[in-house]
Write a structure and sequence with these properties.
Structural class: alpha+beta
Radius of gyration: 28 Å
Distance between the termini: 93 Å
Largest sheet: 3 strands, antiparallel
Order of helices and strands: HHHHEEE
Shape: rod-shaped
Number of domains: 1
Strand order of the largest sheet: 1-2-3
Number of helices: 4
Length: 146
């Protein structure tokens, strides 16, 4: 009986506190990587989706006179650029920067979104960061079937 009392009296005191102090920052770092990494991936997918939608909207602006003359789809660059940038204007509160370029063959759109880390933002130097994605679309005509 005295042997058990001697072990309980001071043999392992503070061990759990030491493990808690050592492993809490590691657990918080891993949780931050999981949560904030997911936010970054989601923001990149959102930026890609917005860029693809805007590029497709621009690629729909075919110059009908040129199409009737040549039978080939040719974009009206001014209308294509305006349509792409107009679609991005709907996402004004989410997009921090965008660029729309168009020529007679296609539309290129680049979208940038800011991401504010939820957990890792407490670490100095790991503040808000940018996710950028781009897309290109070209007009296509024709198809198989009626």
């Amino acid at each position: 009986m005295t042997r058990f009392r001697a072990m309980a009296a001071g043999g392992d005191r503070g061990t759990i506190a030491l493990y808690t102090v050592l492993f809490t920052p590691i657990v918080l770092l891993l949780a931050g990587l999981l949560v904030d990494g997911g936010l970054a991936i989601h923001a990149r997918q959102r930026a890609a989706d917005m860029a693809e939608q805007a590029a497709r909207a621009g690629a729909n602006q075919i110059d009908t006179d040129a199409l009737r003359e040549t039978g080939e789809p040719v974009l009206d660059p001014g209308r294509a650029r305006a349509a792409a940038c107009g679609l991005l204007a709907d996402y004004r509160e989410q997009v921090t920067a965008s660029q729309c370029d168009a020529d007679e063959e296609g539309v290129a759109v680049t979208v940038q979104i800011s991401v504010r880390p939820q957990i890792l933002g407490i670490i100095p130097g790991l503040g808000e960061f940018q996710m950028t994605s781009g897309a290109t679309a070209r007009p296509v005509t024709g198809g198989i079937g009626p």
